[in-house]
Amino acid sequence: MSNQIQPPIIGSVLEGISKVLGDTSNGLTGTEIGKFLQEVNIPDIDPMNTKWKRIYNAFVSFQNRKQLSNNILTFINKSMNPARFIGRSEKFEDTRFELNKRLSFISLELTEKGKFKRTLKSDTISEAEQRANRFKSKLEQRNAHPAIFKYCKAELLAENYFHTVFEATKSVAETIRLRTGLIEDGSELIDKAFSLKNPLIKINDLSSETKESEHKGFANLIKGVFGMFRNTTAHAPKIIWEINENDALDILSTISLIHRRLGINE
């Protein structure tokens, strides 16, 4: 941030920020809280309280006296310095995204460099969650195929793993139909599209037994994805077939690979 005086942060946002920074699992330790408060010249007025309330009371007391938030923002910068999270990148990203959900209500975003930038102000919870979408960011870090983002936009923004996987698997069939002009679905679609006698899609030139095996293996991989993920999500209630974030990321990485190979000769 610039050296300009930054206005006070509204109480609800300040409380949310304090809860993230003082979270029992991923937040700062008591020692770290005291250290950073001292470094940014914010008096530690309630050191015996729970961590998030200790941070919140210190922030509120400071703002009430100074009518600015510069020192509070510097506290966040210092505590979220990426150098502190070497070997703990998951923790850094989790904390950063939770902070950004709150910061978006005051038109701020904490970047991967641990610095602030101005952003559009959120007015609703859904806007805040969409702008601080951890799941989408992790897919981008994995360099997921553009088709994943094209077909799963609404589901990704909602961090809806179950329906994201469903839409992504459907995107494979749709891509094959667009490439081939076929109207079939499922195994019948794959068998016709990847037939060795008359292939409508080839992932190599099929000039050797090894390349034919690769071609058939790729077709079977798509069938496996359909059978395990698309058919299951289409028929099983979400509460029965649960997908967590790591599962969804791995599944979507596989589907991303399929999309890349489908476009290999384009």
- Tell me the radius of gyration: 25 Å
Give the percentage of residues in beta strands: under 5%
**Which regions have little confidence, pLDDT < 50, spanning 5+ residues?**
none
How far apart lie the N and C ends? 45 Å
Helix content: 55-70%
Integer count of domains: 2
Extended strand count: 2
What string, H for helix and E for strand, traces the elements in order? HHHHHEEHHHHHHHH
Q: If you average the pLDDT, what whole number results?
A: 88
DSSP summary: helix tally? 13
- What does the largest sheet look like? 2 strands, antiparallel
Strand order of the largest sheet: 1-2
Helical/strand content category: mainly alpha
Broad shape: elongated
Description:
With 266 residues, this protein is mostly helical. It folds into 2 domains: 11-132; 141-262. The protein is built from 13 helices and 2 strands, in the order αααααββαααααααα. Strands 1-2 form a two-stranded antiparallel sheet. A hairpin with a 5-residue loop joins β1 and β2. α1 runs antiparallel to α3 and α10 crosses α11. The longest helix has 27 residues, at 209-235. The model has no long low-confidence stretch (mean pLDDT 88).
